[in-house]
Amino acid sequence: MTPLDHAHAAMEAAPEDEAARLRFYDRLAGAELVLLLEAEAEGDRIRPQVFPVEGQRFVLVFDREERLAEFAGGPAPYAALSGRRLAEMLAGQGIGLGVNLGVAPSSILIEAGSVDWLAATLAEAPEEVEERPEEIAAPGGLPERLLEALDARLAAAEGLARMAYLVGATYAGGRRGHLMAFVDPVPGAEPALARAVGAALTFSGIEAGSLDVGFFRASDPVAGRLARVGLRFDLPEAPKAEAPGAPGMDPDAPPRLR
User: Fold this and answer.
1) Phi-psi region for residue 27, left (φ > 0), alpha (ψ -120 to 50) or beta?
2) Distance between terminal CA atoms of the chain?
3) Where in the chain is the domain with CATH 3.30.70?
4) What pTM does this model have?
5) What is the pLDDT of residue 255?
6) Domain 135-234 is found in CATH 1.10.10
7) 90 close to 62: Cβ distance less than 8 angstroms
8) Which label site among 8, 24, 31, 144 has the fewest CB atoms less than 10 Å from its CB?
């Protein structure tokens, strides 16, 4: 059983539970998937196998290479990429996703409209404001499912920052809220980190919730206060560079459909 299997089982067990459905899509977006291709990739261009089902078109993805091989009856060409990247690539093309079809408990057909919704949800960018907290305190009253969603999202943000602290914050004028404070973010990674926090909030199923995001250096005087009272999240270090692998493994050079 993979994380995607468990999320799918929870969704199937509670079909009226919106939070369970959102958690499944969150796991799908964050999963490393292998996409079945018609032929080996040519440079950065890939041609997925497209299957017609009841008048609709689907491409097939699997969350394990072994599952793809089982479906195909042996080794088959594929591209490896995240569910987020795949949704972005397919958005607006009228193509759905067949996930782990016939080879896993999480076997499911996701129609094109749901793929478009997933891509649009993941693309939502938080509003930028220039505001610095005047007081910082320990966080409190946040739902456990939000903390779990944040932990999962930040675990996938390898190499983008050293760490993050979740704290309660009070701003000028008395506004209070919670702040996810990233320490020593990689230059240029700030938008991706903000989107990751926004996605965690969205997929946790919390209505009318908000969570501020800030970026600080370890040398900033506020960093000591963050460490004293904040809930710490350690982000994984970036893996060492390796020889090029399957298409899609390099996030800076995603494959292009053709």
Assistant:
1) alpha
2) 33
3) 135-234
4) 0.74
5) 60
6) no
7) no
8) 144
